[in-house]
Design a protein that fits this description.
There is one protein chain. The chain is an all-beta fold. It has no helices and 8 strands. Strands 3-4-5-6 form a 4-stranded antiparallel beta sheet, with no helix packed on it. Strands 1-2 form a two-stranded antiparallel sheet. A hairpin with a 6-residue loop joins β5 and β6.
Length: 95
Amino acid sequence: MEEAITVSKRGKRELRTIVSRGRFALVEYRDPKTMERVEDKYKLVLLHDDGRVDEYFIIPTKTRSRLLMIVPKEKKGTNLKVWNPEKGEVEDLFP
């Protein structure tokens, strides 16, 4: 168990504990005509092994190297269709 203990910035010992495992997808947003990124944001979709889905928008803050995670008002789930630039085609978020 000692290998899983870490020390916080405040010097407190903490046990790292797994809460869930699963798969993830990181989605960015592009203009469909130019293929350039339209906003500096991402969507992170977490698919837990037990079937639960968590979604977050990741948005940069004014402070460099700091990001803000926001839970969207409306969840899209795993039914999203996304563009795969490597294959050049639309596919399911989690095939």
